[in-house]
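quick one before i forget lol
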Amino acid sequence: MKVRFFYPSIVILAMISLTSCSGYHFNTNNNPLIGYDIRTVSVPMFINRSVLPQLAAPMTKEITLALNDYTGLKVISGDNQNADAVLIGILESKDHYNDVVKTTQTLFTEGDISKSIGNRSPFYYPVQTTYNFALRIILIKRPSPEELALFTSDLGRMIKVHPKIVLEDTINLSGNFARVASPTNTATAPGEVNFVKNKGIFDKSLQDTCYQAAQTFKQVVLNAF
């Protein structure tokens, strides 16, 4: 994990000043970006370059809610050229779905489940699944449209230092969920909706992972500033 931020001497002097004040307690809910003259942050919809669809919206929502916790910092959803800074989020993963979403536990078809597969040969079916992806965040102070396009392109990874980048970090994320496998040997068997149930469980797990990403993001901000 790499965190880059500028004006370290200002930050260090500020911390020395605060710790020297008798009885002063640092309020972690205050705007941590005020030292960079950032009072408004625009958060456009995150870019999803992962193999997990529909991930951008919940991740953007949770990160936006995390920023809203800071008093003195106004968060604007969507593109806004008048904001002091723009927070870009890029969701990334390996290129192949099977390398991202993996079965970690299986069961053998037996009992009522074996009756559901008809004349097929018995097989192992997944009951536990894990997944991995990453969130790359870039906080840019008053970027131009051309700079935004550059920072979010593949070339953006090659830019190690830029005076407008206040924070850049990659948060590696993972999650897991248990699948349901009910029999489908009768007309009213619950297994008729196995796929729908598992999709809902997967979506809920992704939502939880997005929430955890937002909490990690807040720690990254506090550690950086």
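fyi Residues 1-27 have pLDDT under 50 and may be disordered.
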